[in-house]
Amino acid sequence: MPNAHSRSTQMSIRNSLQGMLADFVRAAGFQYSHAVDAACELVFLLAAYREEDSPLFPELYLIDGTVEGDVLSAIAPGAERIEIGSTSHDRRAASDALKKCAALATEDWSIYLLSGATQFTFGIFRAYQLPYSVSASESLQAADPSIGAVILFRNCAANCVELRDGSGHNLEVSLTSAPPSGSPVSTLFGDLAAEVSANVDAEIKDTTRGYLTRLLSDICRGSHGALIGVVPSSQARLPAMLSDGVILRERISFVQPLKEAILRRNDSALALLRSREALLRGMIRGDGITVLGSDATIRAFRVFIKPTANESKLLKENSVPGGARSRAFELMKLRLGKTFGAVFFRSQDGRTAFERAKQ
After folding, report:
1. Where are the beta strands (DSSP E) in 30-148?
2. What single-letter DSSP state applies at residue 295?
3. Coil, helix or strand for 320?
4. d(CA 47, CA 13)
């Protein structure tokens, strides 16, 4: 009788990903196998990184330390950095760096993992100096490829990790059965921020867009889901269909405190900006839809919408999967160009979608 185990097979998703990740890492400029091993380990660790049963979302920069020059200074000039430790060239490098640095990599801080000739060195650095500063990730997008090999790793959704190198190449690795969204998740946050800042004065529009991209991304990564609708700034009053919620009598603006923070650069201006960030964080992480204006303002939160008879028919015909948030997003999409100029969705499991009204 044949051995019952003779036909058994073992498979690991790591095997199928290793080759793809190796190609990306080498194309970014890394020539050593230990960098490939570290990259693979980082993808699996960051996909769902937790400490003390709490999720953490650190950004980590893998840097080639075998070349001349200081890559970290090139993407984050003048940034404060703190070396935490070092480790040998083995698979524990990524784990060691995250274990000792992940809890510190919040707010303005990120992790660096420097791949040297004989060992890895790791620590933390300030990825941006002030809320409105150009961040290291933004600098990386516009970096001169000659600065050296560097890859940004960050969790962009549940069980999904984004890799971005200094040549503008992007790889999004999903460890779920969900189909790709069609656009990188980081791009969707940028698109949302562009709509929210569409009617901001030209002199501060780019700064506002970059600031909001970071803020919205950070808020949504740590939330259990989000629904955001953007309405034109010219709309003095919100439509009646959005009346079931908390409608703010006065718009809460991010532009004015942002301007004050840039102009005055004092603690009170920065404190005002941070306080409004906290308000938006609480609104988005709560139930219902958060309504933002295209002039970078908050208009309403905890908004709930109900379909008309015709909309109910369309939703039924489309057989929308998912829970209440998914159904609400499908209804929001039906109202693009009428109620909303753009809509954004983030599910509890990290699925992300963005759509804007057709011009």
Report:
1. 50-51, 54-55, 59-64, 81-88, 109-115, 119-126
2. T
3. coil
4. 13
* Of 174, 201, 222, the domain-final residue: 174
pLDDT at 6 over 80: no
CA–CA distances in Å: residue 65 to residues 47, 84, 90, 144, 258 = 25, 16, 16, 17, 37
Which tens digits make up the pLDDT trace of 318-333? Answer: 776 667 888 899 999 9
Q: Please say which residue of 174, 202, 235 terminates a domain.
A: 174
Single pTM value for the model: 0.84
Give every CB contact of residue 105 below 8 A, 6+ residues apart in sequence: 56, 58, 59, 60, 111, 124
Neighbour tally for 31: CB within 10 Å: 12
**Residue that the structure tokens 């840097």 belong to:** 63
Over 70: is that where the pLDDT of 107 sits? yes
Cβ(313)–Cβ(300) below 8 Å: no
**Considering all CA atoms of the chain, what is the largest pairwise distance in Å, rounded to the nearest integer?**
83
DSSP of 208-274, one letter per residue?
Answer: HHHHHHHHHHHHHHTSS-EEEEEE-TT-SS--GGG-SSEEEEEEEESHHHHHHHHHH-SHHHHHHHH
What average pLDDT does the chain have?
A: 88
Query: Which residues share a beta bridge with 54?
Result: 51
Q: Are residues 41 and 65 in the same domain?
A: yes
Range of the domain at 155: 13-174
Check pLDDT > 80 for residue 58.
yes
178-203 tens-digit pLDDT = 666 667 888 899 999 999 999 999 99
Question: Same domain, yes or no, for 346 and 242?
Answer: yes
Partnered with residue 102 across adjacent β-strands are: none
